[in-house]
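Complex 648.
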Amino acid sequence: MRIKGNIFLFFSKSLVLLNTELYFRFLIKNIMSKISINIATGSLQQAEMIVGIDLGTTNSLVSIIHPESKQAIILKEHDSSSLVPSIVHFDELNNVIVGDNAKQYLETSPQNTIFSAKRLMGKSYNDVKESTHFFSYKVIDDNTESLVKVQVGNTFYSPVELSSFILKELKQRAEHIIKTPVTKAVITVPAYFNDAQRQATRDAGKLAGLDVLRIINEPTAASLAYGIGTSANEKEQTIAVYDLGGGTFDVSILKISNGIFEVLSTNGNTFLGGDDFDRAIKDYWIKQLNIDINSLSNEIKQGFRLRAEEAKIYLSSNEIYTTNFNEYTLSLTKKEFENLIQPFIDKTLECCTNALKDANLITKDIDVIVMVGGSTRVSLVNKLVSDFFGKPVNNSVNPDEVVALGAAIQADILAGNNKDFLLLDITPLSLGIETMGGLMDVLIPRNSKVPSKAARQYTTHKDAQGSMRISVFQGERDLVKDNRKLAEFNLTNIPGMPAGFPKVEVSFMVDADGILKVKAQELRSGVEQTIEVKPQYGLTDEEVEKMLMDSITHAKDDIATRALVEAKTEGEQILETTEKFITKNSSLLTQDELMQTAQAMQALQLALTMDDKNLIQTKIEELNTISKPYAERVMDNAVSLAMKGKTI
Ligand code: AMP
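Predicted structure with adenosine monophosphate bound:
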């Protein structure tokens, strides 16, 4: 049976008084709905070398705090390359090749060369099936909701394993450069990553031989790299982190005060970035030259794409790009380029508007704008973002390195070298449990700061109920069927007690990495059960967006449905309690009272079969009016018996 939140709220005052426990529970529930925030800090020995890792969709980097200069630095190989392409290639002997050496196989051996594994982290096939055309390798549809796999030859790899190969490469790179074993790391993830994706990232680290001390949000890391919030007496600042990479766009609004970072909101688009600019240029040339795209080989198409990217980069600091490619002369002016990419930048600004709205802010409230990602090197991007916010943007730190540098700074904080910081992030969607009637009872609302803790008390619905099912959901809708189930477990061995007597406290704890732990405890007996929510599959951020949109679109219907479900639940509870009361006290009631009660109960029963909230409430009221006088009389009787020393 399902557990229930709002029990016996207003049957009749006198009946509620028969059991003060009911009032108590009601009060507790309201008190407990206040969410407490509990900040966890890391504490480690100063001597430890902890690396910061930006595990990117396209490229990954590793960084440390330089032991002498105390500045964050990117670890670069002797060829001074800092970026490790997030690409894994498997050769004929199934040897694993990672990074630059794997990149060349993207064109020659696409089936065996895995890029963008980050897009698959913590996801099922159902989550990614709409975008499988994006991958040139085999993403397996195994008709289950379990985590997605990638097939290379006869071997299946999980995104966690694939990411672990990249992390192993970064670990080895770091060990090679600093000549010290590296076992501890801070890894960054997008702020919108859900708990499945964060857990998957943590698991990938473990598989690579790294103890992942903290998963932090990329925008938080980027702000740290700009030294924002680093001095003790700094005034409160609100920051927009605009991150436009090759294939993704994210914007996050952060508040920083007294060394505390708080993510107020996030928004973005997982399929929007510099690759769109390249595609737009390529399509423009093909149209200009009147070429039938279907007549082109894949190699020529790829050649156009590479020239398009070259043009884009060249136009960051020049006015016109011209080149010869096969029999074609390709040219593009800065103006033409800007006209082509303006619609994409406009889309990013729409996301900024939404992020501001979610944070309850306007552009004027933003004090600092931080630019992240390779595509923020495009001058029009800087100009339009600056125009949008009405102030200059910060782009002085290398936009490819800024996140990894911030991860190293966070690693330094965890190493105990900088105790002034605390990092607070937010939950992207509300977290709650299912209560009677399939209603969602939110314990931690969306956009709550993490680490975060909340608890609420519930009780049993039936006499001698020995177990209670706790179903954990994520989402914004009032009915759990419209939300996403994260986990389910049974609290068993509840000692036999009358319905409504056990006090089951359900607590949610979202840790600093955004991972949810759920505990259910029956407080009278101490019986308890704890689970860590490791969902079988995650959500795409489009789905997160859709869930938010749905909650707005259906808000009116949802309110009506919730009211109806609540009325029905209340009606059912009242019938049950009245039934019990009558059975126990029939000798104290007149025939007339018994008959009137039976009629009113019948009328309520009938009303419960109809979807009419007002009718149900009227019938509840009618039953209450009939029961109130005799309930009070029975109560008085019980009290006077008690005063004479008899048991009630
Ligand atoms: P990221 O995902 O942050 O590594 O960014 C990669 C994207 O940045 C790719 O689309 C690159 O083509 C783009 N990019 C790198 N350098 C430049 C540049 N100078 N101008 C424009 N775009 C660039």
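The chain has four domains: 2-19+425-553, 29-226+397-422, 274-339, 557-643.
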